[in-house]
Amino acid sequence: MGKLSKALAALAIGAVTAYLFPRKKEDLSLPVGESSYLLEERSGASKDAIPVYYYRPATWIEDQPVFIAFPGYTRKAQRFEKHLEELAVKYNMLIACPEFSTKKYPGARWYQEGNISDAEGEEGHIQSRRDWTFDAIDHVVAAVRRRTRAKGKVLLFGHSAGGQLMHRYSLFASHPAVDAIICANSGWFTMPDDTIFYPYGIKGLPISDRDLARAFSRPVIMLMGGNDISREKPFRDTPEADAQGQNRMERCNNYFHFCEARAAALGVPFRWQLKVVDGAAHEGGKMAEGAMKLFCQEPLDETVGM
Asked: Does the domain made of 31-304 have the CATH classification 3.40.50.1820?
């Protein structure tokens, strides 16, 4: 049998095989209730996939909100997802909680601080943008959109350590594709102050005034717990952090108004909002509910700084 005959025979066999045993397309449908999927992700200290834990209320449809929630210091995404299930039903939002594990994204450097520097604190060296953690957040958002077939609002929420990641993401990410970035109860901040070295300021970072203008135009909500005034560990009590305020509420308020003033000095629009969840301390569930209310036409108990 000649080469041409062999090739034609192989094609025929392949066609018959494909007809008799068609490949199953990836099932992207999301079941009602709890589910989880693994997202392949190259960034991080390991090549491990990122688990994403979902909860879909029975009444949720594709044009209703998706709430992507990043947990705090413990990073226990599955536990955070379960904690938010009652809220998902109450506000008819689909929940997705990605887990940026301590193995894949070890220490505050990789999670809270976004791997901008190759070491925590001021001792490290600023890395190339391609090494920063923020692209992984974009990959999570794209995967959640694909999995949920979302047509409604996609809300990105982070509490505590997750709130720190969100505030740096809102400031430094290239093109966030979400309807809101909600930064809740962050412990301390990277001020857009070019007289202070990173991580407390942006001196030494490849950030231009144009980059800041783009960040200030984003739909960012700085969310404070009205009773989040404790200084108990793991609260950061360094002199540099204390210069931002004596508790998380003070620091968030000062950060917001510093950014507002910086936008005014640059002569650019400032779209951010500052909100307070009255009665909430350092509590991820209460903060998440406060965030959900903003998108369900239910006002917070107290509102400042629109």
From this structure: yes
